[in-house]
Every structure is written in structure tokens, then in C-alpha cells.
Amino acid sequence: MRHLTQDELVLFYYREKGGVDRRQAEEHLQMCDLCRRELADLARSLEAIESLPIPERDEKYGGEVWTRIRPRLADGFGRRWNFVPPLRTWALAGSVAVLLVVAFWGGRVWQQRRTPTVATIPPPARERILMVAVGDHLERAQMLLVEVMNQEPEGKVDVSQKKQLAQDLVQSNRLYRQTALRDGQPGVANVLDELERVLLYISHSPDEISADQLASLRHQIESQGILFKVRVVELQVQDKQKRAGSHLHGNPL
Amino acid sequence: MEANDGATQVLAEDQDSFRVLVERHSRAIFRLAFRMTGNEHDAEDIVQETFLRAYRGLHKFESRANFGTWLHRVAINCALDHLGRVRRREEEPYSEGPRPEEENEPLSSIPSAGPTPERLLLSVELKKKIEGALAELSDRERAAFVMRHFDGCSIEEIGKALGLRGNTAKNTVFRAVQKLREALQPMVNS
What we know:
Number of strands of chain A: 2
Largest sheet of chain B: none
Largest interface: A-B, 73 and 80 residues
CATH architecture of the largest domain in chain B: Orthogonal Bundle
CATH class of the largest domain in chain B: Mainly Alpha
Distance between the termini of chain A: 46 Å
Oligomer: heterodimer
Shape of chain B: globular
Mean pLDDT of chain A: 76
């Protein structure tokens, strides 16, 4: 058989679907020292890039980003007035005086018409944000439940990472459950309530649990059909989300 | 009056929903942005710009897609725009030189199994070499490579995100890998 080309080696290395016949390539690599060496060299070069250090950002980072962008979100989708025209001092003083008068009268009229709110987000966008956030939440919750169900029950089971994810999900779950209740969706609220109990159980577990504890957790998930219910709610959310944005398509920005 | 209070409440909760998304995805977007730019400050700017763009363009998000994947595509585009601006600035006469912190990054952050002087020197050299090799890639090659190598995107996904046809996307990845390999192989295999 002919040797693998550089491009084929790249496709093989990245397990790109439809790139190269994997079985044939593997057979060839078993026999061919040259191609095996080439692949090893390629892997070494690419793996070296992973050693490039990336500055760490701790768990508070997301909150810091939120603090920085929030004022810009609240002001008409981030289009904030940030251009100061080069006025001379007198002109500036005059403008400020005019602005004060306008602001005074404008403020009186404005107050009569509207109670100030935190942002000017149009209702469809609000619903969209909520739907995307709930969809993301349910997807992560599903991943966690699937991982629990697939965990090997041997001796002590390390659930420290799952515990961390569950702690993160509990807070948002509570928020969405309350929103569902307020919006008159008791079915969704019930599913989120059942999910919350499982999340709480995991988040309050020790880092390592026994096989019996894992079995009990699985039983809780299975007996109540939580995974299935979460999937159903996720489909409902996706459907709602689709309807909310049916007139637009999903291209990146 | 009551209706207004209700609207305020809904608004506050929607902001809370978006806050959850920001808190959840910021670190991953930062890592992606840093890999694209190699610069901490630029990466910070890209993180913020990504969330602002995502917020404005949330109506374009397809419900069947994964939000994280979509957000990464937004971030890649933000990074490309940013790199384009930087390149244009650099091409202008009297452009500013590199920031001082870029020149004096702490060497202690380099991972090393055994910090012998030879190993440390090799790490420093390798780091420089990798940074240099990545900087030699075009913006598009760098984006394609980061998406393929670090984000595990398929060629098809890369093509969609960067607006490239299948073969062009594939060749962009190949070119990037080839350039990196040529630059790093002598050192990695030594």
C-alpha cells in the first residue's frame, strides 16, 4: 500500500470523519515504520503546542466579566454613547446648561410615563435570553445525570467534579423553577423541583461516595424518570425557542 | 404601575439568566481568546466583546445548536476582527511597539516536571518557538487551527464558522499544521 500523505496523517490524527479510511490507515501504520514515525513526529509537534501556558482565571472570573459588561447591556444592547465632541469650554458650559434644563423637564415628563427599569430590552429578546439560558442549563444537567448513570460502581467513587457542577447547577435551577412557577407552568416547575433534589443530593455528598450510595442515587434518578423528564422539558424549551426566533436564522455574528 | 413593576422583575430575572451564561462560559472563552491572540489583555477585551455580541445576536441562535458551541463561534469571529484591527494598526507608520508585559512574561508559569536549568531553558525556548510559530499563521489559519486542535471542531464546522467551503477549510487547517510542524519539529524532536 502507498504511504499516507501529510494531509492524510493530519486527518487521521484528528480523527476527522470522512477524511481517510481509518481501518486501512491503521493497518498500514502497523506495517509501515516510516508512516508511524511521521505520525509520531506530527503528534509530538502538535502536542507541544498544548504546553503553551494559558493564564489562569479563577471561578470568580465570570462574575467579574458580568460586572464589566452589565452596564453596557443595560443601555440599549450595548450601544453606549461614548463620543465626546471637541467643544470649547464656553460652548461646553452652554451645552451643559441647556442639557440641565432639558433633563429637568424631560425627567418630569418621563417619570410620569414610566417607572425606571434596569434595561431597555425588547420582550422577544428577553424571552430568547431566558430560553437559551434554560436550554443550556438543562443540557448541562442532562450531562451530569448521564455521567452519574454511567459511573462504574467500584469501591469508592470519586464524585468531586460532579459535585462542583451540581453546586453550580442548583442555583440556576432554583431561578428557573421560580420563573416557571410564576409563568404558570407547574409541569416544568415540578420537573425542575425533582431535578433540584438530585442536584442537592450530589452537591452535599462527600467527594467520594460508596457503591451503595451511588446505587441509591441512580435509583432516585431512575425511579422518578428524571433523565427522561428533563429531556422532554428540554425539547419543549427548544421548541419554544424556535418559535420565538422562527423568523431569523442561526448564523454566527 | 403594577405592570411596570412586573416588567422590572422580569427584566431583572432575564439579566440574571444571561448572567448565569456569562459566569458559566467566561473562562472557556478566555482560554479560546488567549489561544487566538497570545495576549492576556486582548483576550480580556475579546471575552467582553463576545458576550456583548452574543447578547445582541441571541435571536440568531438556533435552538437545536449547543449554546457553548455557538458562543465559541462568536468568540472566534470577535478574535478575527480584533486581530484584523491589530494588523491594520501595525501596518500604520509610527505604530506602538509591543506592550512591556508582553516582553516580560513570568517564566515561572511554564509547566515543567523537573525544573532543572536545562529543562527550564528548553521550556522557555520552546515557548518562544511556539509563540513565534503561531504568530506566523494568518488570522484565518490560526482560527482554523484553534478550532480544530483545541475545540475539537470538525472541518465542516470550521468552514461554517469562518465562511469557507469544505476544501478551503480543510486546506486552511493543513497549511496551519504544516507551518507549525515545520517550525517546531526540529526542537520537539531534538
